[in-house]
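Researcher: Let's do a round of design. I'm pasting the structure tokens now; please hold your answer until I've finished.
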């Protein structure tokens, strides 16, 4: 499944259901290769980041490539931070990012990224 397909979905429920089914099936089968897994997660993050920034942030935090994980976490976490700063901060503190990366992600919230 291409992440581009997920980003084009206007119905958040469809994107979420499709992602959940495919992700569960692939994980159950052990068929995930890191690039394919990360691509699927990035697609899902892009599809839901405006309507559900908390879910997008949490999934972006699962991307295996550290640079991509920080980049894809910054925007939805910034939106989540503006909606619920206590929950976003709690997640960010426990997400395993370095202090520099946490500050970068927090900066996205302040700058409105």
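Researcher: That's everything. Go ahead.
Model: Designed sequence:
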């Amino acid at each position: 499944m291409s992440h581009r397909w997920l980003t084009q979905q206007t119905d958040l429920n469809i994107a979420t259901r499709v992602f959940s089914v495919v992700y569960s099936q692939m994980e159950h089968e052990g068929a995930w290769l890191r690039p394919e897994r990360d691509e699927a997660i990035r697609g899902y993050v892009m599809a839901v980041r405006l309507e559900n920034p908390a879910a997008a942030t949490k999934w972006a935090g699962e991307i295996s490539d550290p640079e991509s994980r920080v980049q894809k976490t910054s925007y939805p976490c910034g939106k989540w931070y503006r909606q619920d700063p206590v929950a976003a901060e709690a997640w960010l503190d426990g997400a395993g990012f370095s202090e520099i990366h946490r500050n970068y992600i927090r900066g996205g919230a302040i700058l409105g990224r």
